[in-house]
Design a protein that fits this description.
Helix content is 34%, strand content 22%. The chain is of the alpha+beta class.
């Protein structure tokens, strides 16, 4: 009787062992996630809209705050900036994406100060002290504190949404624009700088 039980147990154990062996042998390897190729950035992917044909910029007045808060703002004009490309950036202290973007534009301005004029024009013309406070709080040191008195410049350029960046070549012609925030310290900034210098 005992021999019969041992025989049956032996068969059961042998069967379990065989099943376990084949289960381990046919175990599927974990599926690896496909390798992601870096996304190519082009003017199209960063929402660059070319101005075709390019549009001559005859005038464009903006105002620059001086170092002293007691000194009256100085009147400036885009026509005086010919000779180098101009990046004209419209923003506001109440605009969330603008606030996040401006420190990056400040870094870009330092890097490319010899190759382009970067003009960041705030539309907060009713409270210019707020612009000065914002620059101080964010450590903005490479961009002049400029603003759009009466909103005239933003209307001239139809910059109805913020932020809006207009690209003007060294001959004073608008060649394109981007509506929305830009990654100035990354690939997009390098691409835009190259595009601007070639046009």
């Amino acid at each position: 009787m005992n021999k019969g039980i041992y025989f049956i147990l032996g068969l059961v154990l042998a069967s379990v062992g065989t099943a376990g062996y084949w289960a381990l042998k046919t175990e599927t390897k974990p599926i690896e996630a496909p390798k992601q190729t870096p996304k190519k950035v082009s003017l199209l992917t960063i929402n660059y809209i070319p101005t075709s044909p390019s549009k001559p910029i005859d005038e464009g007045t903006f105002w620059e705050l001086q170092a002293s808060a007691e000194t009256e703002p100085a009147e400036k004009n885009l026509k005086d900036l010919k000779g180098k490309p101009v990046i004209l950036h419209f923003w506001a202290t109440w605009c969330g994406p603008c606030v996040e973007e401006l420190p990056g534009l400040d870094v870009f301005a330092k890097k490319h100060e010899n190759t382009a004029h970067i003009v960041a024009v705030a539309t907060d013309f009713k409270d210019v002290a707020k612009i000065r406070d914002f620059y101080k709080a964010k450590g903005i040191k490479n961009l002049s504190i400029t603003f759009d008195k009466g909103g005239i410049l933003s209307r001239t350029f139809r910059a109805s949404a913020l932020p809006t960046t207009v690209f003007i070549n060294s001959n004073g012609h608008e060649i394109g624009r981007i509506q929305g925030a830009i990654e100035w310290t990354g690939t997009a900034g390098r691409l835009l700088n190259t595009h601007l210098s070639r046009n």
